[in-house]
Write a structure and sequence with these properties.
The chain has 214 residues and is mainly alpha-helical. The protein is built from seven helices and two strands, in the order ααββααααα. A two-stranded antiparallel sheet has the order 1-2. The radius of gyration is 15 Å and the shape is globular.
Length: 214
C-alpha cells in the first residue's frame, strides 16, 4: 500500500498504513529502510527457495521484484522492511498510518496497520509465504513468468483495491523498467503508471495478518 508525503504524522503504535499521489506515491511518513533492486531481487530469490522449496527462475524473481518495486517505489519507501503493503492483525508487530483504499467512487481514507519486520530477510520471507498460503495461483503464475496471470490472481484474491487493469499496467511498467536495466529511473509522469495513479492506483491488502495463514 502506498504512502503519501502529505499525510498526517504516523502514531507510534504497533501498526501501519499508507496513501499516495500520482507523482509522489509511496513517500514514507516514517523513516524507511531503503533497498535497491539487486538487493531486493536477491532476497526475494532466497525467500522463494526457502518457502517454495525450489530455486526461482530469473523471470520469477524479476516478476516478484517488479511487484516489490510497484508497492515500494523501487525500495524508496518500505517502512519496517515491508515488501508489499502487508497488513497486520491485532497483536502483530506493525505501525498505524493513514491510507487511501479503493478507486473512483469507492476511494476513501482509512487508518490501517501494516506489518513490520526486524530485517529485510524477514520481510521478503513473509511476503513470499503470504503468496504461497493465500495466493497459490499467483505463485503458479510467477513460476511460469506470467505477469498478467500474476496480476489476475492477486486481483481475484483481493490483494489490492485498485482497478485491476491499472494495477496490471503499473506492474508491467515496473517489470519493463527492471528488464531494461533502469530499475532506479523515475517513471515519466505521462507513463502508464502515472496515468493509472491518477485513475486510482491506490491499493491495500486485507487486514488479515499473514502470520495467521499456516
Amino acid at each position: 500500500m502506498r504512502i503519501e508525503a502529505g499525510s498526517p504524522r504516523a502514531t507510534p503504535a504497533r501498526a501501519s498504513g499508507t496513501e499516495a499521489t500520482p507523482r509522489s506515491s509511496f513517500r514514507a511518513l516514517v523513516p524507511a529502510q531503503r533497498l535497491h533492486a539487486p538487493e531486493a531481487r536477491a532476497l526475494l530469490g532466497n525467500a522463494w527457495a526457502s518457502v517454495i522449496g525450489v530455486p526461482a527462475q530469473p523471470r520469477t524473481t524479476a516478476l516478484l521484484t517488479a511487484h516489490w518495486a510497484l508497492e515500494t517505489d523501487a525500495g524508496r519507501c518500505m517502512p519496517g522492511y515491508n515488501f508489499a503493503g502487508i497488513k497486520a492483525a491485532p497483536g502483530a508487530a506493525g505501525q498505524e498510518l493513514s491510507t487511501i483504499e479503493g478507486h473512483g467512487a469507492t476511494r476513501r481514507e482509512v487508518r490501517a496497520r501494516f506489518r513490520t519486520y526486524e530485517s529485510a530477510e524477514a520481510g521478503a520471507h513473509d511476503y513470499v509465504r503470504l503468496l504461497a498460503t493465500r495466493y497459490p495461483d499467483a505463485v503458479a503464475a510467477a513460476q511460469a513468468g506470467d505477469s498478467a496471470g500474476f496480476s489476475r490472481a492477486l486481483a481475484h484474491g483481493g490483494y489490492f483495491t485498485a482497478a485491476p487493469a491499472a494495477y496490471a499496467a503499473g506492474l508491467e511498467q515496473r517489470l519493463a523498467t527492471l528488464e531494461s536495466g533502469t530499475a532506479h529511473a523515475v517513471p515519466a509522469p505521462a507513463g502508464l503508471l502515472a496515468l493509472a495513479a491518477r485513475d486510482g492506483v491506490l491499493h491495500a491488502l486485507r487486514a488479515r495478518d499473514p502470520a495467521e495463514d499456516t
